[in-house]
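Hi everyone, sorry if this is the wrong subforum. Our group has a chain we'd like a structural model of before ordering constructs, and none of us has done structure prediction before. Sequence below.
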Amino acid sequence: MSAFQGKSVLVLGGSRAIGAATVNRFARDGAKVTFTCSGSEVAAKQLAAKTGAQAVQTDSADLDAVIARVKDSGPLDILGVNAGIGIFGDALEQDPDAIDRLFKINIHAPYHVSVEAAEYGRPVAVAATDRLIRERAAGLERSDAVELSRLCAARPDINRAMLRLWRAFIFPELTAAHGFRWAISSQDKALHRGNLYRFDGWVALAHSASGTDSRSGRRGRRKIVWGWCDDEDERPARTRLADT
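Answer:
Right subforum, don't worry. Here is the predicted structure as tokens:
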């Protein structure tokens, strides 16, 4: 029996891409899954028919509506916040209403729904997944890799469990849906020894550092880029750092 059998899962923004992969995996493992959609009604209906999950129309920019959705879902075992938008270009030329909508969806909604979900118990771990910000990172293209951009938990040992769950359950779905071969994740070299990733079988792919701040002259912090690939032969062959 799957560890997720009968668990209650709500995914905000679950009709496409990473959200759809998340819905598909939890549903396949026997979880009771509900997911929200806003502008992808056809894709949502197709995913619901395929997985047996429940699709509900909810705009994450409408804070009252998205908070009510979490509240009406009752006690949750897993809350997935996948809804998000991006705006690119000159900040001085952006539509103020579009910027407000971005903050509501990307910042306000995740905070408020997490607080609402915590009404039934404290969150223990958070993982966030993104497409690569740059076109190329650690020698990998956007089409090759996805980024585990955030991983945090209430205790250090839970981080290890959360990393393993993400790697074993979410990453394979992203691989199947989008063709990613690698997952990457960066750690601050000054703050972490790398054991979290190393002990899970990840390999060190590269060093990276943000540029020098033009105003203060302060150099960016150095990071290690860790990588995971399901191919046991490709992982060690790709590593570029003998000593991290």
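For your construct planning: The CA atoms of residues 125 and 153 lie 4 Å apart. The mean pLDDT is 87.
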